[in-house]
Amino acid sequence: MKSAQELRALLQSIDHKSYPAYKSTQGCYRFPDYLLSIDHVQGDPFASPSRVSIHIDGKTAGFPAELFNSRPKQTALQDHLTRLFYTEIEKYNFKAKGSGKSGLLSVSRCGQEILERSACSLNPADGSLVLRMQIGFPAGGRTIHAGELIRILYDFLPGCVTSSLMYRNLDKRKCQAVRALCEDQEYIRAQLKEQGLIAFIANGAVLPRLSGVSERPMRQAVPFQSPPSMEFTMELPNHGPLKGMGIRKGITLVVGGGFHGKSTLLKALERGVYNHISGDGREYVITDASAVKLRAEDSRSISNVDISLFINHLPGGRNTRGFSTEDASGSTSQAANVIEGLESGTSLFLIDEDTSATNFMIRDELMQSVVADREEPITPFISRVRSLYDEAGISSVIVAGSSGSYFHTADVIIQMKEYLPFDITAKAREKAASFGGAVRAAEAFRIPAFNRRPKPTSSLQNFDRLKMKVLGKEAIQINRSTTDLRYLEQLVDSEQLAALSYLLVYASKHLMDGRRTLTDIVLELERRMDSQGLASLSDSSYLASDLCRPRRQEIFACFDRCRELQFN
Ligand code: ADP
Ligand code: MG
Question: Which positions fall inside the ATPase of the ABC class N-terminal domain (predicted)?
């Protein structure tokens, strides 16, 4: 291993040479408190910045084991450190000058959710720490400005590292608060299972966000308050007793006038699959981690999905047991989303009328009497939601403000009034009984066999000249094929999409042999990420510093939407 002095001498020797001479700096160097590894050097000052990692041994990092002795706590600590480091390097971003991306210093930017990222990984075995970042190596035009890189590596970075990644210099109360919150959140998750709940929303929680483009909490929002009949007390290990609304397994209907906060409640439940940071307002909004938001998704592709539970007897006798299309309608897409959600192992569907296909959700009595059932290919969700729970154990939370049809079949009916929930189950049931129009029986309920086997097309398998690109939270591009993910509303970070593209490539290269089922493949990918971290996704010698682990449900959903996979 070379010393920091050797790197400095090397940099001085390439000063004012042309940019590619920077390549010679690749390697690992011993600094007083850490190892600095230059993993990948950019080709020119305008290319995506160079990748650098900082390795701190367990003794120097000094984090007490209680901060990371479970997977969720480890993730929470890593997340905390990434945020601290981000704040530190922001002070020096572009302080070193030059052309293009010269002087850029960046690390993953964490949002409201606490997620596992490649940016920071702590080894639970010995407490050692790796921080992965990007640096724009400075140049004037295309001429190396070594002096500027020396400023970054010797004047800026060491201070950032010591003040944000070493326990002895951190605010210990904050570190303990991160641990305590995580323990409380995990406690609620465990209690959901124990008490037969699918979600818990604490009294006092702030559900609405600041704006359509900001995930921060709304100021002066009406704080959440459980109806007395649904109130549970959670005895949190750190916070102490906490009251809130528990939603039991089964079918929950959310009604209420427009603008009374129905969608906001559902959105909070969608995001409750993740833990949130302190101050978010949704710290104690915890949902079954497998929950899937179900919506219509016109024009998505579907490959060999058995949607016969919902769609049957199509004109022309088209088969719906192995349904494929390049351009799905609202109802067929939503039907496929249910079936694929089941395949991904979910136990909770979250549905908002705002984003559903009406003909998928209901079919009113008048229509049933005019158009005979046998002339209607769609069995609406309302005719299946009861069996989904009774026979498959899948709960549903359904927001429906404009149709009373679900009154008959719901276990609990919540009305949102001025942003507060009221339990109107008894009253609504009574009204429904006198109103008639109970849900009609549908054809027999049968969960399809999940043995689809994906195979990549040749375009996806062109691994030699692999081009990968992430388009925000909208889509991923691999070579020429684009997979549209914009309607996966539980993807919260573009780094999750980056990881999905690595997973897709890894799976098509190593796992999709036409024999393994989709489920086998996803489980195998998860085993790899569990045991070897996100790093194991990348075949290149350096790891992209900007990956974030997606849930199992989104891995399934991404593969299901990839047009370059054929399912047999
Ligand atoms: P609905 O789905 O019932 O039509 P939304 O959930 O879309 O209503 O909410 C309507 C508006 O009210 C949104 O702009 C939202 O930000 C705001 N809102 C939601 N919940 C609250 C709350 N608890 N306090 C203040 N404003 C809220
Ligand atoms: Mg709404």
Answer: 5-167
Residues 244 and 374 in one domain: yes
Residue 25: pLDDT band by 50, 70, 90 thresholds? very high
Identify the helix (H) or strand (E) that includes residue 14. helix 4-14
Give the pTM: 0.96
The ligand 1 atom at the shortest distance from the C-alpha of residue 399 is 2
Q: How far, in Å, from the CA of 306 to the mean position of ligand 1?
A: 37
**Does residue 177 lie within any of the structural domains?**
no
Q: Hey, whose CA ends up nearest to atom 20 of ligand 1?
A: 261
Give pLDDT tens digits for 424-435. Answer: 999 999 988 888
Among protein residues, the one with the nearest Cα to ligand 1's atom 27 is 208
Nearest residue (by CA) to ligand 1, atom 9, is 261
Task: Indicate whether 148 and 28 sit together in one domain.
Answer: yes
Residues 148 and 26 in one domain: yes
Q: How many CB atoms lie within 10 A of CB 229?
A: 11
List ligand 1's pocket residues with C-beta within 6 A. 207-208, 218, 221-222, 256, 258-264, 416, 419
Q: What is the CA radius of gyration of the chain?
A: 26
Residue 441 has pLDDT above 60, yes or no: yes
332/360 Cα distance (integer angstroms): 8
The CA-atom distances, in angstroms, between 568 and each of 76, 310, 505 are 40, 21, 19
Q: Which amino acid would we find at residue 18? A: S
Q: Among 29-43, 166-180, 439-453, which is the least confidently predicted range? A: 439-453
How far, in Å, CA of 126 to CA of 78, rounded? 15
CA-354 nearest atom, ligand 1:
2
Domain that includes residue 426, residue range: 190-449
176 in any annotated domain = no
Contact 420, 260 (CB under 8 A): no
pLDDT digits (tens, 9 = 90+) for 210-242: 999 999 999 999 999 999 999 999 999 999 999
On whether both 344 and 261 belong to a single domain, the answer is yes
Mean pLDDT of 105-113: 97
Contact 265, 416 (CB under 8 A): yes
In order, the DSSP letters of 434-477 are: HH--PPPP-SPP-PPP----EEE-TTTT--TT--EEEETTTEEE
What's the pLDDT band for 440 if we cut at 50, 70, 90?
A: low
Q: How does DSSP classify residue 360?
A: H
Please give the distance, rounded to the nearest whole angstrom, from the Cα atom of residue 196 to the centre of ligand 1.
Answer: 28
